[in-house]
Amino acid sequence: MKKLLLVSLLSVAGVAAAQSTNGALITLSAQTSIRVENDQAAIEFSAEEQDADRQQAITRLNQRMRTGTEQIKKSDPSAMLQTGSVYSYPVYDAGRAKPGKAPVIIAWRVGQKLDVKSADLSRLTGLVGEAQKNLQMTQLNFGLSDAAKAKTEQQKFDSGYKQFSHKLSYLLKAMGKSEAQAELAELNVTDMSGPVPEMKMMAMAAPMADGATQNPGFRFEPGFSELNISIEGKVRLRKD
After folding, report:
1. 0.90 exceeded by the pTM?
2. How far apart are the C-alpha atoms of 225 and 142, rounded to whole Å?
3. Cβ contacts of residue 22 below 8 Å, gap of 6+?
4. Nearest one of 3, 13, 100, 91 to 52, comparing CA atoms
5. Per-residue b/e over 26-53, b at no fewer than 16 CB within 10 Å?
6. 67-111 pLDDT per residue, tens
């Protein structure tokens, strides 16, 4: 009699627990990450000149930028170039400043930056070496080209949704529910992709003088970018 009563109580408890989850709204999230080898370099070059004659400074600057641009295009014809910031400002003689009088301009300093993107990493060492004959390399970063991003876009979303589905399946099994009882009520996708630069370089290497012996050049490791996606969904449990 006691054994029969215990079994009855357990059965009632099980039914009550199952009924209590019917209609429940479950919030579930999943994250996934894909590492993709970087295939593009973004380089910033710059040049600066100073002269008492502002026009002379600009003329020399333009010549350096023109020559540097030609060297870059020759090293990598497929590289994309874009003029960056340009500046010009006076240089004052602090020692000759007098109270109540305008400061004395002794020179003009002018400069310009050039942004370069190259997807041919096999040419990168040569490109940087040639460009630095006239320009300074001030920054270098690696990342993914648009083509590489497009190629991995579907893979990223497939992986994220698969991870979400697996977690939902595990949870339903633990609750004693079937997938047929789960109804997706809401789904939010957050793309959190970003670069994970294994190599980021800041350099202020001066251009080489005419006739100087060229160094062997930098060696680069492009590293990887991490494509992250987060999927959050709300699932409602239907009655049996």
Report:
1. no
2. 9
3. 237, 238, 239, 240
4. 91
5. beeebebbbebebbbbebbbbbbbbbee
6. 999 999 999 999 999 999 999 999 998 776 677 778 889 999 999
